[in-house]
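Recall that a protein's primary structure is simply its ordered list of amino acids. Everything else, from secondary elements to tertiary packing, is in principle encoded there. The following example makes that idea concrete.
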Amino acid sequence: MTMDETQEDVTTAANVRPASRFVGSGGLSVAVWTHKNENGTMNYSVRLDRSYKDNDGNYHSTPYLRDGDLLRAQKLLERAGDWIEQQKQQHRGQASAQAR
């Protein structure tokens, strides 16, 4: 079992889902996770994966990209970055409204 398989098993077992997910062509996907720290600030982390099918027809996921995946990955990461910025703006707006 690889480290990625272990992480997937733990995530599935905890029934935790990403806050947002962006799916592109070539089996690429980006998941955005949110984490609130002790002082209430929201932090974000991003995971980029590529799905593939092995010779036996089983699907797997890997963080490794092929050279042809780079432009598609860049576009997905830009979408994730835009989503994160929107979330940050919403949180800032909510925080300033509560402070009033």
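Residues 24 and 72 are 7 Å apart (CA to CA). The chain has one domain: 3-95.
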